[in-house]
Structures are given as structure tokens and as C-alpha cells.
Automatic annotation (TrEMBL), chain B:
<keyword id="KW-1133">Transmembrane helix</keyword>
<comment type="similarity">
    <text>Belongs to the ABC-2 integral membrane protein family.</text>
</comment>
<protein>
    <recommendedName>
        <fullName>Transport permease protein</fullName>
    </recommendedName>
</protein>
<feature type="transmembrane region" description="Helical">
    <location>
        <begin position="216"/>
        <end position="235"/>
    </location>
</feature>
<keyword id="KW-0812">Transmembrane</keyword>
<keyword id="KW-0813">Transport</keyword>
<dbReference type="InterPro" id="IPR013525">
    <property type="entry name" value="ABC2_TM"/>
</dbReference>
<keyword id="KW-1003">Cell membrane</keyword>
<feature type="transmembrane region" description="Helical">
    <location>
        <begin position="186"/>
        <end position="204"/>
    </location>
</feature>
<feature type="transmembrane region" description="Helical">
    <location>
        <begin position="103"/>
        <end position="121"/>
    </location>
</feature>
<dbReference type="InterPro" id="IPR000412">
    <property type="entry name" value="ABC_2_transport"/>
</dbReference>
<feature type="transmembrane region" description="Helical">
    <location>
        <begin position="157"/>
        <end position="180"/>
    </location>
</feature>
<dbReference type="Pfam" id="PF01061">
    <property type="entry name" value="ABC2_membrane"/>
</dbReference>
<feature type="transmembrane region" description="Helical">
    <location>
        <begin position="277"/>
        <end position="297"/>
    </location>
</feature>
<dbReference type="InterPro" id="IPR047817">
    <property type="entry name" value="ABC2_TM_bact-type"/>
</dbReference>
<keyword id="KW-0472">Membrane</keyword>
<feature type="domain" description="ABC transmembrane type-2">
    <location>
        <begin position="70"/>
        <end position="298"/>
    </location>
</feature>
Length: 269, 306
């Protein structure tokens, strides 16, 4: 599905970095966390009052989601991001993808990392077939590339295993089916840096096996893969390095087995 | 969770030390994630995504009526019904037609051309806000969205124009060479719409309340642009000061509507157009198109964030 393998190190033997996260803090502003929003009078007073007061009045709360995180990811690595709920994993991933601003520090990337979320937007009123084209174009594939890979995308998703579903509108798909199609579309492109947020949790056993194989393939073609998951098994099966975030802080960074052992001790499994 | 969370970093240097990271990034040609491209780079990106822009607009257009029983027939039915309603109110009930020759073609042309601008601006305002999922998931030049929505409205207008051609023939308007002027007029109007849609898309992305306000702004604008009546006739009947008439006549919506009437209807003559009308039409397109594009690009990195 992809071009030839690229080198993992440069001429001097230094490993080639693809993502450099340098002392990054991410702060969310949450609207309407306090009282106020919703009531018309409160909204009015918000407009009238000065800006600095407004933030407090509107109940804008600042959530420090990621604190002073630093790491370097290299070409060919598959990195798992683990941590209990709300530890900042998805936030960090979004910032790497350039979709969230950082408060302090900097994130450098090789090319444009693509976030493969389970929520990638396709149009439910269109057929799966048209969504494959639309999704491919949205990711920046050319029309020729999509034509070339169309068969393999459909086959990979397994949508047509139970009849000709690809020519039906996506609204008729089961949630598992559309998740599988979304993953197949997103995984069809060769990404330099691929960010996956819990995508493996969808679909049946058979499809999970196939997606793990696809992620391994993507890695072979020299990309870097980040995987956020609560499934310890899929982290173990796909990743060779794990970052453990807890309360927005990077608690541990190391080989999968070492980190997972500590993490499982921590979560009491 | 079974353990105290505020324990300090568990095992000493669990997180390895790093050297000068910005230098490392620079050495390997890494760039800051999510930074705004240069203006020329942005144009290049947009051009590279042209197939996405057209595919997205066609997809939206098709999806619009995919649940309806009559399906794509609504592409033509909707504008025709719209014209019928306005004809009933302004032609039959209120009798605005007094003194306007070929009133039905005059009215229908006005309604269709205005609807093109109106829907472009309405959908443009929500272009970013209603596609946050797409914006947060994928990287593409965001201007693709408002442009794509305007393109969808242009496609919609082409369906309306087919219906309009039939209406013109039924009401005895002769086919003429001047019908070809429709093409440059539509191109200019499209550029104008797209530019203004980009301005609104940026404003609407950060202030969603704008989408609530737009219908009122647009309705006022519609009544001021002579969609359902002749501005010239109104000026003659009332004591409208000359400058007010000029402002109304030079406003972009009126300019594009009257150009289309001039192109299609033989009884609508050049004397009803302001002087240098093509210059004005081109000027509005240039101003809105370029200005809107730069204005939208200036906030490129902020869309879908927060």
C-alpha cells in the first residue's frame, strides 16, 4: 500500500526525530463552567462589562490539561499514550496535530501529523463509496491515488462482506461498520506521523487484528504512530514505547513492558 | 483509582533528560506544528485541494435532498416555489408590478440571483462552525469550506437558471445574444459571494451568535436591493434623494441582480443600469474576493481551536 522504506537514521547515525515536544503546557479555556451562561441577563452583563472581568463573570475556567511535557519521537517508532481518564492524553495528541494551541513550550513536527480520530467527519447521507472519495480528498490524496486504493480500502473495511453495503448511504451502517470504514479511509494514506485516538477499540475481533496489522505496516514505512488507548493489550501488541501521563504530567517514558508494569501496579490490575 | 495521585514522579529519572530540543528540531528540518502558512503557500495549498473543494460542494448538494421522496427534483422545485410565493405576494396581492414590463421574468430573475448571494452568505457564516469535527480531525486550508459552500450555491443556481430559461420563454422573452453576458456576471458575483462568505466564516467561527443575526441583515439588504420591485420606479415615484438612490443602485446585490436582468430580459434596458456598471461589478468582486481571502487567512491557525 505504500512506497519504499525510508531510513531510520541520518548520515551521522543519529536517529531521525519526527515529533519534538519541548516543555509543553496546554491550558483549556472552558466556557460556561460557572453560573451565568444561559440566563439572558447574565449574557447581557457579560457584553457590557470589561474583558478581564468578563472571563470570571462568564465562568470561564482554565483547565491545565498538560503540564511541562517533553519527549522526542523518532521515525519508525510506535508510541502508546496511557493514563487514567482525563489525564491529558487526547489533548496532547491534538496539540501534536496542531489543532490546539500550546500555552508554553513548542511542538515541532516533520510534515503535518494527521489525527485519526473515531470522529473524522464523513457525510452520513452519502454512500460509503462517495465517502471514500471525499475522505481521501479531504486528507489530501489525489484522485488517482484514491482510484488506485479504492478496492483495498473497501476490502480492508470489510463493509462488503455482508452484501453490497458500500453503495448504500452511511446512515444505514451500524456504528461498528462506519467506524471500520473511517479507519480504513484514514489508514489508506501514508502518514509521516499518524495519531490514533482509541480507534482500535472499535469493530469486532477480526477487524481489530487487521487494524493492528495495518498499524505495523504503517510503521514499517517509516512513519511514527501514536496510539491513545485504554486497552492494555492493544498497546502491548502495537507499541514499542509508552508515554504515561497522569494529571497532565509525563510520569514515565520508556519501553512498553517497563511502563505497562508500573502502570498496571498503579491502576491496581 | 486506588492510589493517591499526587505522589511525585515515581521512580527517579523515569523521564529521560533531553538536550537542546529546538536545535535538534531545526537540524532535522522540523517545523512548528499548526503554524499559519504564508499567503502564497496558502494559495498553493488551496489549489492542491481543488478537487476536495468541488467534491465537498457536490456532496453537500446531493446530501441535501437525499432523504426526500422526490429527491434531486427539489433542486428545481425549491427555487420555482420561491418565485411563486413572491409573485403571489408582490405581483398579485400588493401589485408592485405597476409599470414594470415583463414583471414575472423581472421578479424571478431577481429572486434567483438574490438567493445565490443570500444562501452563500448564510452557509458561509456557518462554514467553520458547522464543520468543527472536520476541521479538528483533518488538516486542509480552511478557506476550502466557505468556498465550497459558495460553489454549492452556484451549482444550485445553475439548476434555477434552467428553470428560469423556461419561465422566460413561457412569458415570451426572446432568446438573445445578450444571454451570454450571464457568464461573466455570474463569475463576478461568485467571487464577490465567496469573498464575503470568507469574512463571515471567520467572524462566525469565533462568534456563533452571528448566524442568528444574519437573517435580519440579509432581509434588510434584500428589500434595499430591488429584488421584488424596480429601484428606478421607486425613485421616480417618491422623493428619494439622489445619493440614496445611487447607494441603493451601486450596492453589490442590486448591481448583480440588474446585470442579470439586463442580460436576460430585452425590456430591461441599459438606461436602468448605473453608469460603468461592469466596472462597479468587477470592483466589488475584487474588493470582497481579495479582502475576504486575506482576512480569512489571517486567522487560519485559530479555526476549530479552543
Amino acid at each position: 500500500m505504500a512506497e519504499q522504506r525510508m531510513d531510520l537514521a541520518d548520515a551521522t547515525g543519529e536517529r531521525i526525530p519526527t515529533v519534538v515536544v519541548d516543555h509543553v503546557d496546554i491550558v483549556y479555556k472552558v466556557n460556561g463552567a460557572g453560573g451565568g451562561r444561559g440566563a439572558a441577563t447574565a449574557a447581557l452583563s457579560r457584553i457590557v462589562r470589561r474583558k478581564e472581568k468578563v472571563e470570571r463573570a462568564a465562568g470561564v475556567r482554565r483547565v491545565h490539561a498538560v503540564k511541562n511535557v517533553t519527549f522526542v519521537a523518532h521515525r519508525g517508532e510506535a508510541i502508546g499514550l496511557i493514563g487514567t481518564n482525563g489525564s491529558g492524553k487526547s489533548t496532547l495528541l491534538k496539540a501534536v496535530a496542531g489543532l490546539l494551541p500550546v500555552e508554553r513550550g513548542q511542538i515541532f513536527t516533520d510534515g503535518q501529523p494527521s489525527l485519526l480520530g473515531v470522529n473524522a467527519a464523513l457525510m452520513k447521507d452519502l454512500t460509503g463509496e462517495r465517502n471514500v472519495h471525499l475522505g481521501g480528498l479531504a486528507m489530501g490524496m489525489s484522485r488517482e491515488q484514491i482510484r488506485e486504493r479504492y478496492r483495498s480500502i473497501v476490502d480492508f473495511s470489510g463493509i462488503n462482506e455482508k452484501g453490497d453495503f458500500i453503495t448504500l448511504p452511511m446512515r444505514t451502517y451500524s456504528s461498528g461498520m462506519s467506524a471500520r470504514l473511517r479507519f480504513s479511509i484514514a489508514a489508506a494514506k501514508d502518514h509521516d506521523v499518524l495519531l490514533i485516538d482509541e480507534a482500535l477499540a472499535t469493530g469486532d475481533k477480526k477487524f481489530q487484528k487487521r487494524s493492528e496489522a495495518r498499524i505495523r505496516e504503517l510503521r514499517k514505512h517509516a512513519g511514527t504512530v501514536f496510539l491513545v488507548s485504554h486497552n492494555n493489550k492493544s498497546i502491548r501488541d502495537t507499541c514499542d514505547r509508552v508515554l504515561w501521563l497522569e494529571r497532565g504530567e509525563l510520569r514515565m517514558d520508556g519501553p512498553t513492558e517497563d511502563v505497562m508494569r508500573e502502570y498496571e501496579k498503579f491502576t491496581g490490575k | 483509582m486506588s492510589q493517591v495521585l499526587d505522589a511525585p514522579h515515581a521512580a527517579g529519572p523515569a523521564v529521560p533528560d533531553h538536550g537542546d530540543l529546538p536545535a535538534l528540531a531545526a537540524r532535522h528540518g522540523l517545523t512548528v506544528s499548526g503554524a499559519r502558512p504564508t499567503l502564497t503557500g496558502y494559495v498553493r495549498q488551496l489549489w492542491a485541494r481543488r478537487h476536495f473543494i468541488t467534491a465537498f460542494s457536490t456532496a453537500k448538494l446531493t446530501a441535501q435532498y437525499s432523504q426526500a421522496k422526490l429527491g434531486q427534483l427539489w433542486q428545481v422545485l425549491t427555487p420555482v416555489l420561491n418565485a411563486a410565493v413572491y409573485f403571489f405576494i408582490f405581483g398579485v396581492l400588493m401589485g408592485t408590478s405597476h409599470g414594470v414590463p415583463d414583471f414575472v421574468p423581472f421578479l424571478v430573475t431577481g429572486v434567483f440571483v438574490w438567493t445565490f448571494t443570500q444562501s452563500s452568505l448564510m452557509t458561509g457564516t456557518r462554514a467553520i462552525a458547522s464543520n468543527v469535527g472536520l476541521v479538528r480531525a483533518l488538516h486542509f486550508p480552511r478557506a476550502s469550506l466557505p468556498i465550497s459552500y459558495c460553489l454549492q450555491q452556484l451549482q444550485q443556481l445553475l439548476f434555477s437558471m434552467a428553470a428560469l430559461a423556461v419561465i422566460l420563454l413561457v412569458f415570451g422573452v426572446p432568446v438573445a445574444w445578450s444571454w451570454l453576458l450571464v457568464v461573466p456576471a455570474l463569475i463576478l458575483q461568485f467571487v464577490f459571494n465567496a469573498g464575503l462568505a470568507m469574512v463571515l466564516a471567520r467572524l462566525g467561527a469565533h462568534t456563533p451568535d452571528l448566524a442568528q443575526l444574519m437573517p435580519f441583515v440579509l432581509r434588510t439588504w434584500m428589500y434595499a436591493s430591488g429584488v421584488m420591485f424596480s429601484l428606478t420606479q421607486v425613485a421616480q415615484r417618491t422623493d428619494l434623494p439622489g445619493w440614496v438612490f445611487n447607494v441603493l443602485q451601486w450596492n453589490p446585490a442590486a448591481v448583480y441582480i440588474d446585470l442579470m436582468r439586463f442580460a436576460l430580459i430585452d425590456s430591461f434596458t441599459a438606461s436602468q443600469l448605473p453608469d460603468h456598471v461592469w466596472l462597479i461589478a468587477g470592483g466589488w468582486a475584487l474588493l470582497a474576493g481579495l479582502g475576504g481571502f486575506v482576512f480569512f487567512w489571517k486567522a487560519e491557525e485559530t479555526y476549530g481551536r479552543g
